[in-house]
Amino acid sequence: xxxxxxxxxxxxxxxxxxxxxxxxxxxxxxxxxxxxxxxxxxxxxxxxxxxxxxxxxxxxxxxxxxxxxxxxxxxxxxxxxxxxxxxxxxxxxxxxxxxxxxxxxxxxxxxxxxxxxxxxxxxxxxxxxxxxxxxxxxxxxxxxxxxxxxxxxxxxxxxxxxxxxxxxxxxxxxxxxxxxxxxxxxxxxxxxxxxxxxxxxxxxxxxxxxxxxxxxxxxxxxxxxxxxxxxxxxxxxxxxxxxxxxxxxxxxxxxxxxxxxxxxxx
Length: 266
Prior knowledge:
Layout: E1 2-6, E2 9-13, H1 23-26, E3 33-35, E4 41-43, E5 46-55, E6 59-60, E7 63-64, E8 71-80, E9 84-92, E10 103-115, E11 118-128, E12 133-134, E13 137-138, E14 141-150, E15 153-160, E16 168-169, E17 172-173, E18 178-189, E19 192-202, E20 211-222, E21 225-234, E22 241-243, E23 250-252, E24 257-265
Antiparallel strand pairs: 1-2, 3-4, 5-8, 5-24, 6-7, 8-9, 9-10, 10-11, 11-14, 12-13, 14-15, 15-18, 16-17, 18-19, 19-20, 20-21, 21-24, 22-23
């Protein structure tokens, strides 16, 4: 996210997990085995999986959260055979974007259910930034989401129940902001995935913050390690810029870039 100040408007720009981290959709973990009553091994209804990645720039919905610097990210997920799941995901963020902050912690939970070739996914996601705030406004944001996947296509809508990452101006808040996301992922060769994405952010009562982001990339599975490269671009405006106090140099946080990544599931 980035924090800019224009008149009385507090603006928190950008943000975490690939929204709800996209790698979760493709995560495969071995189910835990527990002894049955007869002493035979039975497949558990419970699954726990972890993930870790290093990225050249942490982009959330196309906007850099690390001031165009690298990030180390990790998370853990629990799921039940019924479809219920809980998880946590974390990343370093820029103190320029998040005043007095250094880390983003995401906590989420929901329900995922398959219907033939389609999958429905609904849940809640809390973005939390310890100690980070600007002029008394916290960046913490609660979002609800609902998505449907069919084969290699996914459409998802996210809706804020709190102010959108601290954006407010006097008594005017930004609760009720929404983000629509259309994504596709297809295996074009063994272990090589091609992914594309287009998303549109709408900030309630602050239309000058609305923008569209785009992404296309490749991921290759190298003996259990995910190697990725993605081109990312947005049409975000002047509000999505920031400058360090030391240099004063302005950086466009939504400018086009190529993000490189290395990830591991365990």
